[in-house]
Amino acid sequence: MGDNYNEIPMLERVGHSFIVDNAEDHMNAHAKWRIPSNNDGGVLTLIDAILAAR
Fold first, then answer.
1. How far apart (Å, rounded) are the C-alpha atoms in residues 20 and 24?
2. Using one digit for the tens of pLDDT, what is the confidence trace for 9-38?
3. Strand ranges (DSSP E) for the chain?
4. Which residues contact 38 (CB under 8 A, 6 or more apart)?
5. Are 49 and 33 in contact (CB under 8 A)?
6. Which of 4, 23, 25, 36 could form a disulfide with 42 if both were Cys (CB 3.0 to 4.6 A apart)?
7. d(CA 39, CA 3)
8. SS3 label, residue 36
9. How confident is the model at residue 54 (pLDDT cuts 50, 70, 90)?
């Protein structure tokens, strides 16, 4: 999960890459999916969904 330049190498190496909705537009090229913004608890929402799917 990322939102800025420093996460680009990580996002390009992982199989499931996510950016938050408040990420800069240029980040779209580096992730497969968008999740809700940091302000809306996007990371926690994704983690909850992953745990619920187990």
1. 9
2. 999 999 999 999 999 999 999 999 999 999
3. 18-20, 33-35
4. 3, 20, 22
5. no
6. 36
7. 12
8. coil
9. confident
